[in-house]
Amino acid sequence: MTTTDETSEPTVPDDAHDPRLRDETGEPTGAAGRRGPFRLGDRVQLTDTKGHPFTITLEEGGAFHTHKGFVPHADLVGRPEGTVVRTTYGVEYLALRPLLSDYVVSMPRGAAVVYPKDAAQVVTMADVFPGARVVEAGVGSGALTTYLLRAVGDHGLVHSVERRADFAAVAQGNVEGYFGAPHPAWRLTVGDLADALPGIAEPGTVDRVVLDMLAPWENLAVAADALAPGGVLCCYVATATQLSRLAEAVRDEGRFTEPTAWESMVRTWHLEGLAVRPDHRMVGHTGFLLTTRRLADGVEPPVRKRRPAPGAYPVPSATEDDAVWTEEDFGDAPVSPKKIRRARRAVGRPPEG
Description:
- The chain is of the alpha/beta class.
- It has helices at about 100-105, 115-125, 145-150, 165-180, 195-200, 220-225, 240-255, 320, 335-345; strands at about 1-5, 45, 55, 65, 70, 85, 90-95, 135, 155-160, 185-190, 205-210, 225-235, 260, 270, 275-280, 290-295.
- The protein is globular, with a radius of gyration of 23 Å.
- It starts with a strand and ends in a 7-residue tail after the last helix.
C-alpha cells in the first residue's frame, strides 16, 4: 500500500500489478490467513452459548479472560476452526475465524463504517470485478475499502482518497490488520478528490468510482473525466435530501445515464423448533445507494419519458446552492478528536507528537 499526501504528486506506481507483490505463499494477499489451523497472530472469534461473540488475537502467553474463567491462547494454537474450547470453569466457546462482515462492524473506527449489507450492494451493483481499477473517495474507517480490495484482487487497483489524515490513519490500520500486511492493490491519498483525481488517473482509464461523502455532486465532473465509457459511478448518501440533490446533479452533468437509487434492509429470523418468526430487531435504514454509468463522449443522454409531478422541481435559492453541508445538517454528531485518538491507538497508529 502506497500513501501520498496533498502536497505530493499522487501517481499509480508502474509495479501496481506485479505478481511478485503477492503473498509470500504465492496465494492472494490475506488468503493464507483465512484457512488452516489457528496460528499465533490470528484473529479468533469465540462465541458463547448465548450467541455473544468475542474477538481475540492469539499471542504467545496470552489468555482470554471472562468472569466464567479463562482460556489460554495456547489451547487454540494448532487446532482447526470449528473447535469448542472450555474455560477453567468448564464454560464452552465455539472458536472460528471472524468473517469480513464480523470484522468491519467491530473494527476501531473514527468515521462510521459502511455496513456489510451496503458494502455487498456496492460490490455487486457497481459490478466491481477482479482486476478492476477503482477510485474510492471518503475512506472513513476502511470498511468499504476492504470489500473493494477483496473484489479487485491483487491484480486490480483501489485508489482511496480521504480528506482527513486522522481518518486515513485509522483506515490504514484496519485494512492492513485484516489482510495481515499492506495490500499490493491499494493506494491511499490524503487530500481533496477534485484536486487529487486528475493526478491519480488519466482521463477515461477508471472502471469504477465510489463516492461516500457529504456532497458527492461536487465531484461529478472529475468523476466523469476519469471514468471510461460504460464505467459505473456509485454514491452512498445518508439522507433523502442528499439523494434528491445528487440525482438532479447527475442528470444536469450530461455525461451519465439516468440514475438508479435504492436502499436495503435486513431482517433476521428467529429459528427455534416450530417458533419460526421474524426477529424483533432488524438492520433498517443506513443509507441510500445511487448508481449511474458513463456515456461515451459526445453522446446526449436519452430524453426522459416520464413527466415530473407539479412542484417537483422548485427553483433553489443562491443560498442553497452555495451552502456548505456538514454532518450536523443531517443530524449526525461530529467525530470527536478523543474518539479518533482512541481508534488510532487501537490500530497501532498513535497520533504523532
